[in-house]
Specification:
Number of strands: 18
CATH class of the largest domain: Alpha Beta
CATH topology of the largest domain: Rossmann fold
Shape: globular
Strand content: 5-15%
Length: 569
């Protein structure tokens, strides 16, 4: 099968059949984002069940979501034929099937979609125009990689980035208000408890042990950390009884939201958590996608393929001879879960909370030290060049509207700290989406107006934003690592490049630093930053500093500048 660029360019309307389960849908998100990179000019439509439609609403890779209602109007043969007719009217050029079911291939065949691309599984090879061989079981890694590997024949390359989900500021603020009305303060540590599993009871840890663990965290860790620990119980519709049973067992009464949230509200409350204690379920993957530390209990399922993706999570499991069995109900004594003790889970949760508390205290301490030490303005006359996507804000591939701009936590405070330390702060960003026709220069300016407003609300500002709008193959001098934008900023703003810093998530940012004689800081918040770091190390071009985010990068810059000052005194 050949997928030359001419074939890709001919794809104008693309249908994606997404998975049915929440966890699978989250784990397929990096592959969904990769499709936008592979087909930058195509109109991408997602066909999914109602819950997944809510989950992925507002995703920047998508132009449209079609809801597959079964049960409902798409139930049975007549319903499937109706849905196929709906799809036929959109005149899709290509269907990408993340769902492995026979039915997914049949629907797209009946809809007359000429290219039907997916794994050759479930007896559907003859329905696919482009069947992809299923990896051998022993070679299958994490499910995130499984979805991405399906796209490799299309040209998808590089390591898997972490799944990402998107909430609006209004949705987050509404949940903040709801939690505040339930007595949760901003200074409280919020622990999410997810004791259910819609897949089946075999995945569930014992309710009484969830209750005991939650009480110990509320009582003991609240005293040791000096912060109140609040517990919020979440779960799907139908799990209200389970949530109430655990709440009734607890001495420190939790906020009980099990079965009381929409999908979007569930996402918002999970994102607010400082720790998420859960069985292997869909909400576990929601927490990981928002960067919430997870303690996940695994029994009948395989943590090698469905663990929370990314670093900073803890898996608690007991290897038993019959696991992973992947059964919904345990036919014997449920030993894989009953052997997991409260002490084990409590210990894992405490380690995560200690890291969280230390992180909060460090940030708090940093803010307090602005009062006496920032008066010395250690960065006076120093210029800090910041990349945008993947450094200041989440990188969805292309930020095409102001609403899609989502700053990383701590970015506003970090820029404000640079301002108070006396630095000139300038953003240098490649925006080839303009050349590709994905957004206009006017829309980009609206996006940057929102960026400036978000920074201003937190007492921060940029001295300038400089943009390269060209495609990579245009050979311009302004696209990083080209230095034309830096040279323009130097002229416009009368900048001094001696002692300058460049902060970014890509190799090109580090190369820009070398070309202008600045110190280089690589942040690992970008979707391919770890691969960039590995490539740089292989090439013997280690950045001056590697930071997990902009907050830590700014801390290093200030300390480095102070050290420079002490050497010149």
């Amino acid at each position: 099968m050949m997928w030359e660029s001419v074939h890709k360019a001919s794809i104008r309307r693309l249908l994606v059949r997404g998975p049915n389960w929440i966890g699978d849908a989250v784990m397929s998100e990096p592959a969904l984002a990769a499709l936008r990179e592979l087909f930058p000019t195509a109109e991408i439509t997602l066909l999914v069940k109602p819950a997944i439609a809510e989950l992925l609403r507002g995703h920047p890779a998508l132009q449209r979501i079609l809801v597959y209602e079964d049960p409902g109007r798409h139930l049975g043969i007549t319903g499937k034929w109706t849905l196929a007719g709906t799809l036929r009217r959109f005149r899709f050029d290509l269907a990408i099937l993340f769902q492995n079911a026979f039915e997914a291939a049949l629907l797209t065949f009946l809809a007359g979609i000429p290219r039907r691309y997916g794994y050759a599984t479930d007896g559907r090879r003859f329905l696919l125009s482009d069947p992809i061989a299923v990896p051998e079981r022993m070679k299958i890694g994490h499910q995130v990689q499984y979805y991405l590997d399906m796209l490799r024949p299309l040209g998808s390359e590089g390591p898997a980035g972490s799944p990402r989900l998107f909430l609006s500021q209004e949705e987050e603020q509404a949940m903040d208000q709801r939690l505040a009305e339930a007595g949760v303060d901003e200074s409280d540590l919020l622990v999410g408890l997810n004791p259910g599993s819609t897949y089946g009871s075999a995945k569930r840890w014992l309710p009484e042990r969830f209750a005991e663990t939650a009480d110990r965290l509320s009582q003991e860790q609240g005293m040791q950390s000096g912060r109140r620990v609040r517990v919020v119980i979440v779960g799907a519709r139908g799990e209200e009884v389970l949530g109430r049973a655990i709440a009734d067992r607890m001495q420190v009464k939790p906020i009980q939201l099990s079965g009381r949230t929409t999908m979007r509200e569930l996402m918002a409350v999970i994102k607010r958590c400082d720790l998420f204690l859960t069985n292997d379920t869909g909400p576990m993957h929601l927490a990981a996608s928002f960067g919430v530390p997870v303690v996940a209990l695994f029994g009948p399922t395989d943590s090698r393929t469905t663990s929370p993706f990314g670093s900073g999570h803890t898996i608690v499991r007991h290897p038993v001879e019959c696991a992973p069995c992947l059964l919904r109900e345990c036919p014997i004594d449920h030993r894989c879960m009953t052997r997991i003790s409260v002490d084990e889970v409590y210990g894992a949760a405490v380690k995560q909370l200690v890291v969280k508390v230390e992180g909060r205290q460090s940030k708090s301490h940093g803010l307090k030290t602005f009062q006496p030490s920032d008066l010395t303005t250690p960065l006076k006359g120093v210029t800090v060049f910041l990349d945008r996507d993947g450094t200041m804000n989440r990188d969805p591939g292309y930020v095409k509207t102001p609403e899609e701009l989502e700053l990383f936590p701590g970015v506003v405070e970090a820029v404000a700290r640079l301002n108070r330390a006396g630095a000139r702060v300038v953003t240098i960003t490649n925006q080839s989406g303009i050349a590709r026709g994905l957004l206009t220069a006017s829309t980009l300016e609206q996006i940057h107006d929102r960026l400036r407003a978000l920074l201003k609300a937190g007492g921060a500002c940029l001295d300038g934003i400089y943009v390269c709008p060209h495609a990579p193959d245009e050979g311009c001098g302004c696209r990083k690592p080209g230095t034309a934008l830096v040279e323009r900023a130097v002229t416009d703003l009368d900048l001094d490049l001696s002692g300058a810093y460049v902060v970014g998530d890509q190799k090109r940012d580090m190369e820009l630093a070398v070309r202008i004689g600045a110190k280089s800081l690589l942040v690992t918040t970008g979707p391919t930053s770890l691969q960039a770091l590995a490539d740089l190390q292989t090439e013997g071009r280690q950045p001056d500093y590697v930071a997990p985010g902009l907050v830590e990068a700014v801390e290093w810059i200030i300390e480095d500048a102070k050290a420079r000052q002490s050497l010149t005194v």
